[in-house]
Amino acid sequence: MMIMFLYSADSSPLPPSSVGTPPLLLIQAGTPPEDIRAITGDLSQWFLAAIGCTPQNVEIVKVYAGAPLPEPGRHRAAVITGSWSMVTDQLPWSETTAQWIRQAVARDMPLLGVCYGHQLMAHALGGTVGYHAGGREMGSLEVEQITGAEPDPWLAGCPPRFQAHLTHLQTILRLPVGAKALARSDHDSHQVVRYTPTAVSMQFHPEFTPEIMATCIHARADVLRSEGLDPRAMLQSVGTTPVPLELLRRFVASHAGLAPTGKAMASAHAAAAHHHEHAQGAAT
Q1: Which of 118, 123, 190, 207 does the annotation list as catalytic?
Q2: Second label for 158, Cα 20 to 30 Å away, from 89, 90, 125, 247?
């Protein structure tokens, strides 16, 4: 079930994308391991299904595979995905993307970072990223808005507490100067961050479905047990996370002018059902 909350989008006209350029740029920072990808599909598919738009409206650039990024500003907005790499490894493609982020922010290009993208934005803009002292955060967990934080238009109408899908080892240890944390979890104090009026990021995964979250837990069950975590309890707590999904769609609608279409949503539901059948088989 999708939970909608009240929000008044900025009525300012959207900046045009370059002629022939899709309005949204998806910067793909990684691809799932084969055991996950075989069941759920690739990361870009997760985002297309979550956003509910057709591939023609999104340019996907696989930076992790060495694909070059277009000049900042050619698209109306960009989303930077998660990854199975670590920001602190400072891989060449990642540092190149960090430089691109600095240029895009300097041009006031709307940016949304997710998980790795969240951490990479903080790193690029002068913050510190590293391994969380408390170890891994994984599962469908509660996130809460930070009490006393100035109301943020992106979170307008969002409930004070909501569920979100999480899986990460590294975190933002220190925010860039001028950045502000808007939400946190018991484990991590930087779940949602605003850097500028047009640049935001989230540690959790709005593109995850319950099936994707469960598949990730199944795939890492042995590792989780070795870390003293309980994958069975994690699986039992997996549920829907409508608020993060709505935040992703809100960003895309506000800055790229894209809203979920009936055709795209039907494809997303069909893909989710297909992946669910495979996930059920993998669990037996």
Answers
A1: 207
A2: 125
Told to judge if 207 belongs to the known catalytic residues of this protein, a careful annotator would answer yes
> Between β-strands 24-28 and 77-80, what pairing exists: parallel, antiparallel or unpaired?
parallel
Dihedral sign from CA coordinates of 21, 25, 30, 36 = negative
**pTM for the whole thing?**
0.88
For residue 80, CA distances in Å to 14, 111, 156, 203, 258 come to 20, 8, 23, 12, 17
Residue 205 designated active-site: yes
Residue 85: predicted pLDDT: 98
In the residue annotation, 158 being an active-site residue is answered as no
Mind listing the pLDDT tens digit for each residue in 27-57?
A: 999 999 999 999 999 999 999 999 998 899 9
Backbone angles phi and psi of 252, in degrees to 5: -65, -40
Catalytic residue among 53, 59, 75, 115: 115
Which residue of the set 205, 255, 275, 276 is catalytic? 205
- For the segment 139-165, the average pLDDT, to the nearest whole number, is 92
Contact assessment for residue 181 and residue 223, using Cβ atoms and an 8 Å cutoff: no
